[in-house]
Specification:
Length: 128
């Protein structure tokens, strides 16, 4: 088996409209396709970043909560590259998003910080 790349990341949200607005209006993902699956009472939203398909956003009625703190088992966080982390943090804060203080990775000397999506999924900004 020779893996080529990560194809997509699937996220289940509790408030479809809030998460759709967060990922599109705030983070700038573009919508590839939006499908309502009546048999499951579920939306599936395919999102792209810079033309590359990257996120499937799902809604399911009564989806159970999952621990989302950074040290829980499973997916720790989803990281996005940014050119200027201070500008990105300022923009998030302008929209009322809580963002941790910017830190510097002691091994790479790159700056990074964390914030959360509407369901508390930990998201990272990593300055390249």
């Amino acid at each position: 088996m020779q893996l080529q790349a990560v194809h997509h990341i699937a996220i289940i949200c509790s408030d479809y409209e809030a998460s759709k607005a967060f990922y599109t209006d705030l983070l700038g993902f573009t919508i590839i396709r939006e499908v309502y699956r009546e048999d499951r009472d579920s939306y599936k939203l395919d999102l792209a970043l810079n033309g590359a398909y990257i996120i499937e956003l799902f809604s399911f009625p009564d989806a159970p909560e999952r621990p989302s703190y950074p040290e829980a088992r499973g997916l720790r966080h989803l990281a996005f590259e940014v050119m200027n982390i201070k500008n990105a943090v300022d923009e998030l804060r302008h929209y009322g998003i809580e963002v941790e203080d910017i830190r510097t990775d002691p091994y790479t000397s790159r700056r990074f910080t964390f914030f959360s999506d509407p369901d508390g999924l930990p998201l990272e900004l990593y300055e390249i």
